[in-house]
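Our consortium's second objective concerns turning raw sequence data into structural hypotheses that experimental partners can test. To show how far this objective has progressed, the report includes one record in full. It was chosen at random from the queue rather than selected for favorable results. The single chain below, 232 residues long, was entered without modification.
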Amino acid sequence: MLEARDLSVSYGGVRAVADLSLRVEPGRITALLGPNGAGKTSVLRATSGLVPHGGTVSVDGLVVSDPAVLRSLGVVHVPQGRGLFRRMTVAQNLALGAYGRPPAEVRRAVAEVEERFPPLQRWRARPVGSLSGGEQVIVTLGRLLVGHPRFALLDELSLGLAPVVVDRLYDEILALRESGVGILLVEQYAGRALAVADEVVALERGRVAWSGSPAELGGAEEIMKHYLGARR
């Protein structure tokens, strides 16, 4: 299990996250929702060790703060904007998903992903920046899978995508859950997240305003109105 306890994040004296606790279980989706500026991205960045923070992050009970160690334990963070290197080729981006592992293992992991997503093999030599948004999503998913994640932290991957591409993206997110990956999902469209989430954590100004199952949230009109924003 991936767990954050009493998490806090500050930037230049401004508190972005305060006393936040949540957990992500294998094979389950925890949706982290809230309006812009609520602290969602900061929670993901702290959980993956990318920003200094108070409180603790643990994997299976082991407290870890080093991002490299978190990565070795299977915590994979896909940042807002997808984090691809536009001038590098598709093959190079995919290989970065297994950075630090032996070359033969990297090649094997990339080959497995190319078998799952056949277009990746055709695009191997193309710079990522030459691909469409929908094609870049496939590269993003491929790089995530190359890393053999146990826990995936996904930050607004649907941003700017056509509905048909978002449908494909969510098919793959559900497949990740079915394979046993625990997912911490930040999504701009609350309705999309609620449709797949097992657990919901709603933020307001860096604090947990509400948590529970999507079914319980369905009757919480004030939460829907004030904490999740207009996009549903």
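The partners drew two points from this record. The CA atoms of residues 95 and 202 lie 35 Å apart. The domain at 1-74+151-165+183-232 is CATH 3.40.50.300 (Rossmann fold). Both points have been shared with the crystallography group to help prioritize constructs.
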